[in-house]
Write a structure and sequence with these properties.
Distance between the termini: 79 Å
Structural class: mainly alpha
Oligomer: single chain
Radius of gyration: 27 Å
Number of strands: 4
Strand order of the largest sheet: 1-2-3-4
Order of helices and strands: HHHEEEEHHHHHHH
Number of helices: 10
Number of domains: 2
Shape: elongated
Strand content: 5-15%
Largest sheet: 4 strands, antiparallel
Helix content: 55-70%
Length: 297
């Protein structure tokens, strides 16, 4: 009798776990599909930015003095005045000089001349879809975080539902019905890829719900000021001062970074020349890298 009761209780638990697993899957499938596909594409966001604006100068060594000239030119035409200003020097995945204010971003060439506005609407569309589902920022982040929690719940219920899911980790029944074969494939892939799924769902839930948590803490302890919540992590914003002051010494600050970026550009150019020589000589070399660098240069 006790064994029968335990067996019935176990069957009921499995049935409830399966029901919860199916419900979570059906409720979140469409939104998770959008998040996953946009997330995969977002990994290539720098490459997509370069594809959208192929005419922007790339691999241009820029001196500290040129970086300062670019900064002065950008700030001179900035309206309204900006509270933040960034200079991005060439990197491996985005070999461009980009100057960013609160309201715009521009490209500069090696002489420090502003040559074009940064504009990659399609890439930004994909990024906003992944981060916010094109909802208002706080609402979108909260919804994405809740989807991460639901995905995590679906993973946990999926492990609890089939009692032998780990024991049958390599079992496939292709000779039976198509539905059984699909169920086996679903269960096997879920086990093998579970570390990735759990890490994605957990970190997505944490990042997505951080804004809601910060808003709650700010409401309770900081009179609604969310910046005060994030200040211990990211640092505090300096107090606003409307008095006129000369521009900081950007050339001096950029000296080590500009030198490093220039060296990086030289290395890539040398690599491209080597690949071009190999492509011109008979031999079993792959010229795909050469063609890629020629397009960049």
């Amino acid at each position: 009798m006790p064994g029968q009761i335990e067996g019935k209780a176990s069957r009921k638990f499995v049935e409830r776990a399966l029901s919860g697993h199916s419900s979570l899957g059906l409720a979140t499938a469409a939104f998770l599909y959008l998040l996953i596909v946009s997330g995969i594409i977002s990994v290539l966001n720098h490459e997509l930015q370069r594809w959208e604006q192929p005419g922007a100068p790339e691999l241009v060594p820029i001196s500290p003095q040129a970086a300062e000239r670019a900064a002065i030119s950008t700030l001179a035409i900035q309206q309204p005045p900006t509270s933040h200003f960034f200079i991005q020097l060439p990197t491996d995945d985005l070999p461009r000089v980009v100057l960013t204010t609160d309201t715009r971003a521009v490209f500069a060439d090696g002489s420090g001349t502003i040559v074009a506005e940064e504009s990659h609407p399609w890439t930004q569309f994909v990024l906003d879809l992944h981060y916010y589902l094109h909802l208002p920022e706080k609402i979108g982040l909260t919804v994405v975080g809740m989807l991460g929690v639901m995905l995590l719940g679906s993973l946990i219920s999926g492990f609890l539902a089939p009692p032998s899911i780990f024991r049958d980790a390599f079992a496939f029944r292709f000779s039976g019905s198509a539905r059984l074969a699909q169920a086996d494939l679903h269960n096997r892939l879920s086990v093998w890829t579970s570390p990735l799924h759990i890490s994605i769902a957990l970190t997505g839930a944490i990042l997505g719900l951080a804004s809601m948590t910060a808003f709650t803490i700010a409401t309770l302890d900081h009179a609604g000021n969310t910046e005060a919540v994030f200040a211990p992590v990211f640092g505090e914003e300096p107090e606003k001062n409307d008095e006129a002051a000369p521009l900081a010494g950007i050339a001096r600050a950029a000296d080590p970074y500009a030198s490093r970026a220039s060296g990086y550009c030289d290395q890539l150019r040398d690599h491209a020349r080597t690949e071009d020589k190999r492509a011109a000589s008979p031999g079993p070399w792959d010229t795909s890298a050469s063609s890629r660098f020629r397009r960049i240069l």
